[in-house]
Write a structure and sequence with these properties.
single chain, DNA ligase i, domain 1, ATP-binding, 24% strand, OB fold (Dihydrolipoamide Acetyltransferase, E2P), seven-stranded antiparallel beta sheet, 20 helices, alpha+beta, 3 domains, D-amino Acid Aminotransferase, Chain A, domain 1
Length: 534
């Protein structure tokens, strides 16, 4: 655990990619194989589920150190992170100097064993572990793993490149082999990275190819006829896989979604075997996408009712072909992949499988005019893909670009603030915003991104000086700071006091030039709903 805690500390405090790459490479060079498998799992989103609730953890920590629960709660609110609070509160004097140190995999696998255990057994393990771990850093990591909230600022790409230094495999090969449905508790390091693992798992998806945002004029990309333009759909990026007469649906986040979209079961009978399609999971009627809010009614549901199937019918908008007849087509030019994709889609001819159209245009100016119609099409903008491009791994510059439309914006005043988490756990960085409704202020959204570190510090200082009321970790503040809130879409909502819900809200700028009385009104917000909502 000590090795892993030191790694987490470097990854959590460094801002340089090369430093993170070096730290991961050094770790993979010396760590035992079972720990390496768990690190790959953790950094690719396969976090162990929480087996002990946070209330019990707080109670046991308070008992161990003899601290009243009310004082523990005050400490928690000050620190802003439960795992860090516990790590700071447990004194070094409680550490057992004769305790046997355990590796990372011991603790994670013990968590899993305790899932069905009684409260006393869980408590004994927690206290024993707190006493065994030598440093606050180790206790912090232990608590994070236990809570199921383990998140570290390192991309899977960096981890894959670090592994490539250790095992002498191409990063794209590693990215593919660690994808899919595998259990870190039973698979060995050698098995995970072997070619046998690919052949044994017929569900295994390919790593997704991701695009960068186009921040220059499209004319700088060259001749328009070298590029394929498509609508950028607002759904769940996914892969539709049929191998060995079995069907699998994977999300970009490597979540297996097959059972959540029973509409796609028909593909098992009508798609050719040995095929992988890349596309977007979108609710649609008569071939036209429905708003993302409709998709949200299906996300997270374990069981889908007949009514939900009718109200939110799902289609798979396919735009690329990655495998055909069990052959990897990713190295084939996009123009050829598109030809084969159109052939497959035309043979299927079902409303559940729709071919994402290629946009016809003669000049960049004509395409820019079409881009302005994106919201009418239910899209976020355009995708530009070089016709000669192969399907790469991860986010790459050069061949795929997303050319999104400008976001919608509205001016609002901050009325509530809460401390953030991680490196922002001591700063008020999570804000609630309101618009005017006559003489009242009506909250309508939250946002916690979009400001610089300097600006976050300024707002934090304002909150501490201008708090009006305290509700647990939340502070009511004087409604004086005005911000421009940007968002991608708007929909009606019964759950929000304002009657609307925003898609991807974030702070686009601090309007120091505006006074609170100049913010937008609830009526103006609802007019935006009429125009841009569906």
């Amino acid at each position: 655990m000590k090795q892993f805690a030191e790694l987490v500390n470097i990854l959590g405090t460094s801002t340089k990619t090369n430093d993170k790459l070096d730290a991961l490479s050094a770790y993979f060079a010396v760590a035992n194989d079972r720990d390496k498998v768990w690190v790959i799992a953790l950094f690719s989103g396969r976090r162990p589920r929480r087996t002990i609730n946070s209330t019990l953890i707080q109670q046991w920590c308070s008992e161990l150190i003899g601290l009243p629960l009310w004082l523990f709660a005050e400490s928690y609110h000050t620190v802003g992170d439960l795992s860090e609070t516990i790590a700071l509160l447990i004194p070094d004097t409680l550490t057992d100097p004769e305790a046997t140190p355990h590796p990372l995999h011991y603790y994670i696998e013990k968590f899993q064993e305790l899932a069905a255990a009684g409260e006393e057994e869980k408590k004994a393990f927690m206290i024993q572990s707190w006493r065994q771990l030598e440093t606050p850093a180790e206790k912090f990591v232990f608590n994070k793993l236990l809570s199921g909230a383990f998140r570290i600022g390192v991309s899977q790409k960096v981890m894959v490149n670090a592994l490539a230094r250790t095992v002498q495999l191409d990063p794209s090969v590693i990215a593919h082999r660690i994808s899919g449905n595998w259990d870190p508790a039973v698979i060995t390091f050698d098995e995970l990275l072997s070619e046998t693992n690919i052949k044994a798992d017929s569900s295994k998806p390919y790593p997704f190819y991701l695009a960068y945002a186009l921040e220059t004029s499209p004319e700088e990309l060259g001749e328009p006829d070298e590029w394929q333009a498509e609508w950028k759909w607002d759904g769940i990026r996914g892969q539709l896989i049929k191998r060995n007469n079995e069907l699998f649906v994977w999300s970009r986040g490597e979540e297996l979604l097959t059972d959540k979209f029973p509409e796609y079961a028909i593909f098992k009978d009508i798609l050719p075997d040995g095929i992988v399609l890349d596309g977007e999971i979108i609710p649609a009627v008569d071939g036209k996408p429905l708003p993302f809010a409709i998709l949200q009614t299906r996300i997270g549901r374990k069981n889908v009712t007949k009514k939900q199937l009718q109200e939110a019918p799902m289609s798979f908008f396919c735009y690329d072909l990655l495998e055909y007849d069990y052959e990897d087509w990713r190295g084939v030019a996009l123009s050829k992949r598109r030809e084969k994709l159109e052939e497959v889609a035309n043979q299927v001819s079902r409303p559940e499988l729709l071919l994402s159209p290629v946009i016809e245009y003669a000049s960049w100016q004509e395409l820019a005019a079409l881009r302005d119609q994106s919201r009418d099409m239910g899209s976020e903008g355009l995708m530009l893909k070089r016709r000669s491009s192969v399907y790469q791994v991860g986010r790459k510059r050069g061949d795929w670009w997303k050319w999104k439309i400008d976001p919608l914006t509205i001016d609002a005043v901050m009325i509530y603030a809460q401390k953030g988490s991680g490196r922002r756990s001591n700063l008020y960085t999570d804000y609630t915003f309101a618009v005017k409704d006559g003489d009242k202020l009506v909250s309508f959204t939250k946002a916690y991104s979009g400001l610089t570190d300097k600006e976050f510090n300024e707002v934090d200082s304002f909150v501490k000086r201008n708090s009006l009321e305290k509700f647990g970790p939340v502070r009511t503040v004087k409604p004086e700071l005005v911000f421009e809130i940007a968002f991608e879409g708007i929909a009606a909502s019964n759950r929000h006091k304002s009657g609307v819900a925003l898609r991807f809200p974030r702070i686009s700028r601090w309007r120091k030039d505006k006074k609170p009385e100049e913010i937008n009104t609830l009526e103006e917000l609802k007019k935006m709903l009429e125009v841009y909502g569906k």
